[in-house]
Amino acid sequence: MSDASDASADAPAETLSNKAAKKRRRREPPPDPTPLPGLVDAHTHLAACGGRDAESVRAILGHAQAVGVDQVVTVADDMVDARWAVAAAEWDHRVYAAVALHPMHAGDLDDETAAELEQMVRHPRVVAVGETGLDYYWPGKSDDCASPEVQHETFRWHIDLAKRVGKPLMIHNREADRDLLDILAAEGAPETVIMHCFSGDRNVARECVDRGYILSFAGTVSFANADELRVAAELVPDEQILVETDAPFLTPHPYRGQPNQSYCLPYTARAIAEVRGVSEEEIARLSGANARRAYNIPLP
Ligand SMILES: [Zn+2]
Ligand SMILES: [Zn+2]
After folding, report:
1. pLDDT, tens only, 264-290
2. Nearest CA among 283, 173, 270, 176 for reference residue 219
3. Domain annotation covers residue 300
4. Which terminus of the chain, N or C, has less C-beta within 10 A?
5. What is the pLDDT of residue 15?
6. Is the peptide bond before 187 cis (omega within 30 degrees of 0)?
């Protein structure tokens, strides 16, 4: 989950009909990209994208597969979401799940939720512990968000869980670079760490790369104001890069603000190919292979 607010201030001179047209466009899904085969959406939220039951999940995956996105990892934020994500992974062979308490919901961790999460994480179609980590943007802005201290505790518990079950740790980091890297170092990171929706600068990127972490890039890498993120996307070695939508948030340029879904992944993959000066086929092949290796999932 990321911040979905992309609303720009309305210019005072704007006419009413202009405003209405803009509003309509914002609700409209982006057009299908030209297919780019071999991709895996390394992080999405199918329930928030309109997934309800087996049929609606199949429809989202069918749309994605038509443009080359063969498999997805759907990520849970809380306990209700986690149960749903595991069910979705059972409904459709193209779907895998990641379960954890998002830092916002870090306060939900108690003996009961810990036991249930641990049981879910051991499910064969659950391929990562996530998203967990730290979010320093929301505390103080939202009463529902756990305090940094509570987030630290719950993050440590998730790190330990990932090590015990031998599955990747999928990290959410918002404005918490230093504390997040320090806690990971102090606790000892699991073998595979995935920095979902990587948002750091080149120094954070280098530190993560040196530690062997995987950097997963979302549509933000294509945004006009994301020069520093593009530097990060350029410096990460071939074996340590993933591509994700984080849908329904962070729709890639030029559709920023419109609803995102896994089928939009080729737009972001192409933006990364351009930054790295390689072909789009190469990025699809590379990031797809990395996702299958990191999450230990078979070819479709
Ligand atoms: Zn996130
Ligand atoms: Zn997310």
Report:
1. 999 999 999 999 999 999 999 999 999
2. 270
3. no
4. C
5. 64
6. no
Distance 234 CA to ligand 2 centre (A): 23
Binding site as annotated, residues: 43, 45, 131, 172, 196, 246
| pLDDT at residue 191 greater than cutoff 60 | yes
Q: Considering every ligand atom, which ligand is closest to the CA of 44?
A: 2
Average pLDDT over all residues of the chain = 93
Distance 131 CA to ligand 2 centre (A): 7
C-alpha distances in Å from residue 27, one per residue of 24, 105, 184, 221, 253? 5, 28, 39, 22, 15
Q: Are 287 and 295 in contact (CB under 8 A)?
A: no
Taking the centre of ligand 2 as the mean of its atom positions, its distance from the CA of residue 259, in whole angstroms, is 14
In the chain, the number of structural domains is 1
Q: How far apart are the CA of 131 and the centre of ligand 1, in A?
A: 6
In a domain, 15, yes or no: yes
Task: Kindly report the CATH number assigned to the domain that includes residue 234.
Answer: 3.20.20.140
Give binding residues for a divalent metal cation as ranges. 43, 45, 131, 172, 196, 246
- At residue 231 the predicted structure's pLDDT band, cuts being 50, 70 and 90, is very high
Q: What are phi and psi of 98, to 5 degrees?
A: -130, 135
Indicate whether 7 pLDDT > 50: no
Q: How far is 43 from 297, CA to CA, in rounded Å? A: 14
Q: Is the residue at 189 inside a domain?
A: yes
- The answer as to whether 201 is a domain residue is yes
**Which residue range(s) make up the domain with 134?**
2-295
Q: Which ligand is nearest to the CA of 249?
A: 2
Q: Is the dihedral of CA 100, 70, 281, 3 positive or negative?
A: negative
Ligand 2 centre and the CA of 244: distance in Å? 9
Distance (Å) from CA 208 to ligand 2 centroid: 19
